[in-house]
Amino acid sequence: MHAVPQQVTDFLQQSGPFDILDIEQIHDIARHSTIIYLAAENQDEMLSTHKDALYLIQSGQFSVKDCDGALKHLSDGDYFGYTALLDNVSYKLDVTVDSPGLVLCMPKEWFDKAILHPKIKQFFNAAKDDVLQHDAVTDSNSMWLHKPLFEVIETRPISISQTETIQSAGALMSEKRISSLLIIEKNQLIGIVTDRDLRNRVVAVGMDMQLPVKQIMTKTPAYLTKNKTLFDAVCLMNEISINHLPVLDEATNAPVGMITATDIFKQQRNNVLFVISDISRANNLYELTRCSWQLPHYFASSAKRPGDFDIVGKVLSQATDVMTRKLITFFGQQNGQAPMSYSWLVYGSQAREDQTMGSDQDNALLLAEEPNEEQAVYFEKMAKYVCLGLGKCGIKLCDGNIMASNPKLRMSLNASIEQSKAWVRQPTSEAILSFNIFLDVRSVAGDSSLFLRLQEERKTLFQQSLFLAALARQANEGSVPLSMFQKFVYAKDRKVKDSIDLKHTAIAIINNLVRIHALANGITIPSTVGRLNALPENSGVSSEDIKNLRDIWLFLNRLRWRHQLNNKVQDNFIRVSDLSSIEKHQLKAAFQAIHRAQQTAVLKYSGGIG
Amino acid sequence: MWPFFSKLFKRQPTLPEKWKLVRIKDTPLLSIDLELTSLDTTIAKITSIGWVRGENQSIDLSSAFYTVIRASGDLKQSPVIHGLTARDLLKGEHVKNVIGQLQAFASSHVWVLHNASLDMQVLDKVANNLQIPEFKITTIDTMLLELYFLNKTQDMLKQDAVTLQSCRHRHGLPEAPNHNALDDALATLGLGFAQWYQFDKQSSAPLSDLLHTKSVKVYSIGKT
Question: In 3D, which of A74, A95, A94, A77 has the Cα closest to residue A485?
Fold first, then answer.
C-alpha cells in the first residue's frame, strides 16, 4: 500500500511553518514531493526538471540568489524558491552548490495549498520581504504598553485659560464629557483641573464659582512627553496615585493631549504592573523587602502567558526604581536631609529597562559639587544603605562594583563631565568596554536637574564623529552566533550542548547599535525601544530598520524570559531545542538582521573601516 | 587455476543486456528493504517490506510502498525491534501477493539494497517455497559500494563502519529513523545517490562501470 516514510513526515514537521498543518496534510504534501540529490554538476538539469517548487534542504550547503535578492548561504532546514511561488512567476534561481545534498521539492500546487493557512503564508511573506516575522510581537498581550503616547492620544487636548471662571471650566468639561482640563498659558502647561478638584475644592467648601480657575487648579502637574510609552504613563500614575496625566511635546513642551486611567484600563488586559503599587506602599525596610521578594514568585505564577514576557523587564526595572526611591526616603527619615543636591543614577539594564531576574544592580551618585569630609560621610552612608537595601530586596550586588557604595562612583558634576571628556579623547576598544555601561543611564531619585545638566554637557561631546566611529567599530566586533551557512553556533563549555548566549551575542549588540544611533542624534533616553521610537526621520536609519530592530529586540528578550521562567534559571543561555521550528527560523532571521545592522553602522559611522 | 576462474564467473554473473549500456543516471531504480525475524537466513521470515522508486538522482515519493507480511509460526525477537506486534503481523498481507508485484519490478528496475545478499537469500527461499519459477534481479548494494570506497583509503575497518547510519553519516546525510522497511529503503536510495556522485561526478558512467566495485550483482530467485 502507499505509505509515507517517517523521515519525510518528521522532516516536514520540523521544518519551518509546516508543523502547524495536521498529519493528513503533511502526508499529502509528502506523497506529492520529490527528493533530489542536488550537486554542482546536475543542478541546471535538476532545477529545470523540478521547477516551480519550494526547495527544502535536508542536507548539503547551497548559496542561493532568489530573483534579485541578496545572496544567502543555506543549509539543512532552510528553504529557497518561495519568492517565485509567492509572486506567481518563474524567476531564474541562481544556485551555487557548495556541498551537494538531498533537497525535498514541494510542487507549487501543494505549496499553494499550504499557504492557504494564514500563518504559513505570513511566514513566507516575511521571509520574502526579509523581515523578522512580527507574529511574536504583535500577538503579545502586552504590546500596547510599548506604544509611544503619541500613538495612543486620540484627540487634541481640551484646555482653558487660567483666567476663565470655575463655572466655565465645569461647563466645558460637561460639554466635552471629560473628567479633566488642561490649563494653558502661552501654549505651555501651567496646571490641571479634574472632577475631583471641582468636588473637593469647590462644591465641598462652597467656593464661589465665578472665581478664576487658577484658584483651584493643581499647579505644575506631573506630565510625560509624547515619545514616552504607555508603560511609563502607567508606572507614573501608579506611583504618585493620579488618574490624569498631561502629555507634552518633547521639543516645544506644548501640551498635546491627556492620558487618563480610563484610557489605560481600556487597553489593559492583565495586571502584571500592579506589583509596583504594592512596593510603593511599603512604609519601612521590612515591608519593602517582603514585597520585593514576592517579585520572582509573582512573575513565575502570573507572567506565564507568552505576551507577558515583553514587559517583565520593564516592570522589574520600574520596581527597582521604586525600591531605590523608597530606600532613599527611609534613609532620609533616619539621617536627615542630604547636605547638598544629588542625583541617584542607574546604569545598564536598569537604565534601559530590560532588567531580568538575574541582573545585578548598577548605580552611582552624582553630586552637585565636591563634598567636604562630613558631606562625603553622609553620602557614603546613604550609598551603602541603599545598595545593601536593594540587595536585601533581591537585586544582586554588582560583581564589578559598579555601585554608588564604591567611592569612585560618587562624583561631582564637574568630575563627571571631565570623565566623559576623557572617554571621548581616547575611545580605545578596552576603554569602550569599561565605559559602555555608563552610556545607558537614568536618574531615578534626587535632583534630576543635576543629571539633566550632565546630559546637556555630554550631548555634543558624544556626537563627535571619531567617538561614534570608535563605538561603531567596537559594536562590530561582537558577532551573532551563526555560521556562514546559517547554522547556529553554540556557546562553548556549557552543560547544555545547544545553548546560545542571547545576551552577549545578540541583545547586547542591538543595545550597542541603538546606543550609537541615539548618541549621534542627541537622544538621551536610555531604553533601547525608547531610543528607537525617538529616532528622528532624518536620523539616517530607515523607519523599516527601526521597526525591525525593535521587533527583534523584543523577540529576543521574550525568548530569554521564557527560558528563564520555564527552565527556572537566571542565565541568558537559551536552548535551541526549546524553540519551535518557526522560532528557530525567526531567530536565524533575527541574527542575520543584527549582522546587517552592524555592517550598516560601521559604514555609516566609521566609513566602512571595521 | 580453472576452478578459481569458474568461481569468479559465478560471483559476477554478467549484467542483463538491457542494463549493460545504460548510464547509472538513466537506470530506473527500486530501493527496497525487507525486515526479517532473524539474521539467520535458514529460519528468517519476512515481517514487512518497503520500497520506493527513483531515477536520475530523484526519489519519487508517490511510489513509496510499505506492507506488513502476514505471519505464521515463531516470530523470534525481531518484530519487537521493528515496532510490529504479533497482532500487526496477523493482519498483514500474504507474502505471495507481494512477490507478484516484485516479479514485475525485477525486469523493469535495478534494485538498490543495503546488504543485498541477506534479503536476496530470504526472497529466494520464499519464492522456492511458493514454487515460483526463476527470475533474475539486478542489484546495486550500497554496503558493498561503501566497502569499496573504504578499502581504497583504510586498512582496518571498524565493525559498524558500513551500517546504513554510519554510511549516511560519512556522506553528510541526515539521520533517518531505523528499522522500518520503507524508511530504510528511502535512506538507502539517498545514500546511493551520494555514493554514485562520489563515484562519477558527471554521472555519465554506464552501470557496467560499477561492476569492478563488486557492488552490482545479479541474483537468481525462485525455482530453477
Answer: A74
Q: Cell for B85? A: 506486534
Cα–Cα distance measured from residue B200 to residue A117, given in angstroms and rounded to the nearest whole number: 43
Residue A559 is given by DSSP the state: H
- For residue A255 the three cell numbers come to 501640551
If one counts every other C-beta atom within 10 angstroms of the C-beta of residue A186, the result is: 6
Alpha-carbon distance of A279 to A393, in angstroms, equals 10
d(CA A580, CA A583): 5
The amino acid present at A140, given as its one-letter code, is: S
CB-CB under 8 Å, B58 with A31? no
AA identity, residue A609: I
> Is B172's Cβ below 8 Å from some Cβ in A?
yes
Tens of pLDDT, residue by residue over A484-543, are 888 899 998 888 889 999 999 999 999 999 999 999 999 988 989 889 988 988 888 888
CA angle A16, B52, B128 (to 5 degrees): 155
Interface size A-B, in CB pairs within 8 Å, comes to: 91
Q: Which of B32, B51, B57, B101 to mutate to test the interface with A (most CBs of A within 10 A)?
A: B57
Average pLDDT value for chain A:
86
Residue B127, chain A, CB below 8 Å: the answer is: no
Distance between CA atoms of A37 and A55, rounded to whole angstroms?
12
Q: Note whether A41 contacts B190, CB cutoff 8 Å.
A: no
Tell me how far CA of residue B148 lies from CA of A443, B111, B169, in angstroms. 73, 19, 17
Residue A441 host element (H or E): strand A441-446
Q: Is the pTM of the predicted complex or chain greater than 0.80?
A: no
